[in-house]
Structures are given as C-alpha cells and as structure tokens.
Predict the 3D structure of the following.
Amino acid sequence: MHEASDGVEKGRNLTGQKTAARGDWKLAIIAASNGSYREYLHERNPNHAASIVRVLEWHVKAIQGGPGHMADADATALLSTLDDSYGMMGAKYAHFLATNHEAIRKELKAYSKQLQADWNAGLSDRYWIAGSAIMVLAAKYAAQLGVEVDPDEIEDFMHGVYMENRADRDSRGMTDGKVDSAESVLARYLKDRGAEERVIWTNYMHNKQGKPPKPVNILKGPVTPRNTAGGIEVRVAVENREIVIASSDFGPWVRNGGGLSGRPKHSLKQIEDGLKRQFGAYYNDKLKLCSGTIHATPLREPCFIIPVPDSKSPLWEYLMMWSPPDERAAAEADDLDGDSGGAAEKHDPLEATDVA
C-alpha cells in the first residue's frame, strides 16, 4: 500500500554500474470491505500514522427501501447484463479526461489548495485532501456529461468523511503524521504495575548525601509482606512532586506491549521522547528507587523521572491519590499562590547516595 501511494518503483540495478529506469504513476484505489481496513492499520502500525493517512474510509449504511433500492432478483438481473456490455459512460468519461487533462490538472491543484484551507487540514492530510478533491471534481465532470450527481452534495459528504477520519486518528494520539501515544502508554503501565502492587507512594524521596531531614513514610504500598508479582518498580514522591520509574522495567514493558497478546508494541525511544516533551521527563543513572523504606536495596539503578510540578499536570491526581486531605489542600493552595510547595530539584546522580 505504501509503494502504491508513493507512486514510484524501487530502484534496481541492471549491472554493477547501471541502474534500471524507475517507473512512476498516480493512482487511487477504491475498495469495499466487510471490516474496517483503517482499524486493521491502527493495530498493525501503532507507532506511526503513515498508513492511516493513506486511507480515507467511510461506512456504507445498509438501506432497506427508498430511492435507488430494488428487489434482489431485479438487481441480479440488471448486474448480469454487465457480463456482455459495460455501457458507454466509461468511454465518454475517459475521453473527457484525456482531452482536458491540462485544465483538469490545474483545477485539481487549485481545488485541493482550497479544500486544505477551508477544512484547516494539516500537511500530513495531503492524501485525504487529494482523495476528497478527486471525488468532488469527478462528480462535477460526470454531471457535465449527463450523470445525475450533485457535486455540492458530494463535497459535503467528503467533508464529513474527512473530519471523521481525522477525529479517529487524533483520538488515538496521532497528529501531523506522528503518534504521540506516550501519555496513554504511561497510563496503561501505571495501571498494570498498580494492580500488581508494585507501586509505592511516599511523603518524599531522599537521594542525596547526608542524613535524611525527616522520616520517609509510605502512604500506600503492597498490602502483602511478599509480593510474588515482583519488586517495586514505581515510586511516587509527593513532596518531590515526582514519579520515579525503574528504567529496566519500563523499557521491556513498552517494547513488549506489557507482555499481553493483542496489545500494541511501541518504540521505547518514541514513548520516552513523548514523555520528555509533554512532562519534562528525564533520566537519572543512579538512584535507589526505594530509599528510606523497607523495600530498599543496597544498590542503585537507572530511573526515568517524571515531574509533576503543579495541579495543572494531568498526573496531579495520581500524585495526590493517597495524600491526606489536609496535605493535599495545602499543596493545591500553595500552587494557587504560585509557590511550588517544596518541589525538589532534579536528582543529582553524583549525590545519589542514600544513607537512610
């Protein structure tokens, strides 16, 4: 599908020194399917929108009765006549295109630019705009040749199709040809690790040299002394306003779709880049994830840190989930006053030696 829409053949060598000529074409394919081809592409290529923007799909409703509908027997008899005769409209239309191709090319270009502006289409929507423009102008030329079709009605219909396809793409985190599914992937990860009781909430996190200024209290942790699902992989440090994730756990989980069949597998770099852009996430090579708690280990590990600076962050509710109501209210009041409420600076890996 990608090669067909690119419009150019692959480069091939004739000999060690000569390259074969590359053919090119302009092609649009119309196909009917019982299932959604767009949905198939979403599942097949969850990491990019390059496939989706090559397909403009709409649902054809089944009509019982009404204009254009006839009995199955009559329809079958009518279609059987096409075994011997295809009529002349196709020949007329082909002749019209061949004798007016220069004017059509100019009109198609101008009309595509008009649709892009009128529909506020992005650059990655060029295939959708081209497909819509072709449908509308085809209706216009067919009407000129005597076919009973209303180009304005087709334009309204194609606008609805375009908006529906764009909304479906954007609802999956796909914008401007890229997939920004970092937030949804993070949400699934936190839910999975939370269900396994591999997340702890603490009042704060001490990972600097020196004696901790106050005790570290676990606000929420595993309810069983020994968790057979695995160790702690996520720490939510409320006063630091940070979510700290073990890199060695997050990376394989993202690449393998959480290890569950049917879940899309993602590019770790793409997800990490998305979290960096959206939340200001960053790496720290040497942290004790569970420092100051009964879950602490003597060794440090690489961690991925996601700041939650204020109540405007989508992660604020998650950060404050197990905080006492009075402390949560105080934190939100500090935020309204413009005070960060004691949010910690980034952990310094050179000082990341826990002595608690």
Observations:
- Confidence is low (pLDDT under 50) at residues 341-345, 348-356.
- Residues 107 and 196 are 60 Å apart (CA to CA).
- The chain has twelve helices and eight strands.
